[in-house]
Amino acid sequence: MAQGLTRARSEGKRVVLLFGANWCPWCRRLHHAFADDAGVIAILRGSFVLVYVDANTRNDKKRNADLIARYGDPLQKYGLPAIVVLETDGRQLTTQETASWAAPADEEVARRVAAFLAAWAPRR
After folding, report:
1. How far is it, in rounded angstroms, from Cα 43 to Cα 48?
2. Which residue range forms the structural domain that includes residue 94?
């Protein structure tokens, strides 16, 4: 997380924290949009540093509990996965649920992700 902020400051970008878990089917599908869709990748490369945050709580392990708490425990409010956008100084700009991004087609999921990212990209 600290490396993501350092990189964002040096590149003039914002940070996107993607809270998820490997056992979560919607997390994996959303990860696919972030990692494989050309439009989403282009917006990320130009405006954001993406940081994946393991929020897995299986087997009574609370991974990254301090980080989750620092940003208002978005998982408690929205479930998995959740998004937090940070300014380069670490200030939280917004928290976003992702259930509204679900769609039958992967292309539509990616379109919704891209629209969100474009709305939160730093103005240059």
Report:
1. 7
2. 2-120
